[in-house]
Design brief:
about 80 residues, alpha+beta, 3 helices, globular
Length: about 80
């Protein structure tokens, strides 16, 4: 089983972000990522960026749900 903190570390090594939370039960994970890198990208392009950043490590994750926001979008959620 994978620890959500390990997945956070994988993201920290490859993504530039302002906010990151990874939660999960060892098999299914949800990542909330806030990054300027998402500006001007649609949802599909944001997800691809996240998946590509994980590279081969993605194969170790059974299920990953992604919520990808720009800083402005995330701020407007509050």
């Amino acid at each position: 089983m994978l620890d959500p903190k390990l997945i956070e570390e994988w993201f920290k090594a490859v993504l530039d972000f302002e906010h990151l939370i990874v939660e999960g039960d060892g098999h299914h994970f949800e990542a909330t990522i806030v990054s300027k890198s998402f500006e001007g990208k649609n949802s599909l392009a944001r997800h691809r960026l996240v998946y590509q950043s994980l590279g081969e490590k993605l194969s170790e994750i059974h299920a990953l749900s992604i919520k990808a926001f720009t800083p402005v979008e995330f701020q407007n959620l509050a």
